[in-house]
């Protein structure tokens, strides 16, 4: 179903990971209706967690915005018709000492 129909918008993944994402999306779309976006996202997230380790996030839908931080080499945004898929491995922000900004405050 997905062959030749997916359009990759942005990615920094290796080609093999891109292929895995598109193949898994094709399988999910063969099994689920496009209206079952949450189920499609669940399948992609769980499969990528199993294949590449934990921490993957997936958003699937027809209308969404995003602003995410991701690990280098683990981001893809593609569409199949009106359905968009955003798949990425989340990146934790550097730890910040929450009290360091209070050093100059007098009690």
Structure description:
By secondary structure, the protein is of the alpha+beta class. It contains 2 helices and 4 strands, in the order E-H-H-E-E-E. A hairpin with a 2-residue loop joins strand 3 (70-80) and strand 4 (83-90). Helix 1 packs antiparallel against helix 2. The mean pLDDT is 86.
Q: Helix coverage percent of residues? A: 25-40%
Strand order of the largest sheet: 1-3-4-2
Number of strands: 4
**Radius of gyration, in angstroms, nearest whole number:** 17 Å
Give the number of helices.
2
What is the terminal-to-terminal distance? 66 Å
By helix and strand content, what is the structural category? alpha+beta
Name the descriptors.
globular, 2 helices, alpha+beta, 4 strands
Secondary-structure blueprint of this entry?
Elements: E1 6-11, H1 15-31, H2 37-52, E2 56-61, E3 70-80, E4 83-90
Antiparallel strand pairs: 1-3, 2-4, 3-4
